[in-house]
Write a structure and sequence with these properties.
homodimer, mainly alpha, Arc Repressor Mutant, subunit A, two-stranded antiparallel ribbon, DNA-binding
DNA sequence: TAAGATACAACGAAGTTCGGACTATTCAAT
DNA sequence: ATTGAATAGTCCGAACTTCGTTGTATCTTA
């Protein structure tokens, strides 16, 4: 298969660039100091992996464990995250969201949902499926 | 036109999520301490807008001017950016890239180019055009 | 020509990242 | 059983970044 043309590459570049600046989504909880980017990522990850350990999260997000420790500290301090020692391995800690953390995560997810909605609404019904299929291919079929 | 389905929204969400983690591109100049995200953005902007002022950049990137001042400071200190008083308005400063800055920017652009290349290479020739058309529609036709 | 708007920079407080050192456990191999 | 190595996490502190406040020229305009 022939290579993409320079025009295509350039077009994709400007599109992504604009994209990134445009869809810099706002925080759920306003008023309070917004969470650090990392903290939000941690929250979202734990939302889908209740009981996981800090190391799991650190590996997934590709940050040093000490950095992740800071993040969980902040989240616990804010009452969004729970840290519990577990029986099976007493060195380990199990992370899970508190009531408030769950609410925050849901708000965040909802915000994303609306953003995606807005994006897809620009495409026709058939285009939507095609677009999703393509971006999925790009994301997952990469060596 | 009917709304996107929940399935579509969910699929797009996971795709983007993975996308963001996967394509966290490395820095051009390794070895030295990597530039802050903001600094890279500034460099890329100035590369395309030689002679612009700090305020322009700040507005474009949506950060406070003081923050941008810090960024230009760092860049100047590293020898990547030049700051020059201009005649027309002596309060103003004209930003432009130094030799090294230009090299850095080019390296960065090249890295992006390769990333886009990798992405598009996953699609067939016709898909590429369609994909670019769609993402462009999404990015630019948004209220 | 004085009052106000502009373009920036200096300073400093508050926060984030992450390497190094340290504690508590668990595992593995005598 | 015992001990030496790996593991899970945390604590500490240095180096950075962000951004509000304050201050300084320099236009602008009434």
């Amino acid at each position: 298969m022939s290579d993409p043309t320079e025009d295509q590459l350039a077009a994709l570049g400007t599109a992504f660039d604009t994209f990134a600046r445009r869809y810099k989504l706002a925080d759920a909880r306003r008023s309070e100091r917004p969470l650090a980017e990392l903290d939000k990522a941690v929250l979202l990850y734990v939302a889908d992996h209740a009981g996981c350990g800090p190391t799991d999260v650190a590996r997934f997000l590709a940050v040093p464990t000490t950095t992740l420790s800071s993040a969980t500290d902040r989240l616990v301090k804010r009452g969004l995250l729970k840290r519990e020692r577990i029986e099976a391995d007493r060195r380990a800690v199990a992370l899970s969201l508190s009531e408030a953390g769950t609410a925050y995560a849901q708000g965040q997810v909802e915000t994303y949902r609306q953003m995606y909605m807005l994006m897809l609404s620009r495409l026709s019904a058939e285009e939507r499926d095609r677009f999703i299929a393509m971006i999925t291919k790009i994301v997952y079929n990469d060596d």
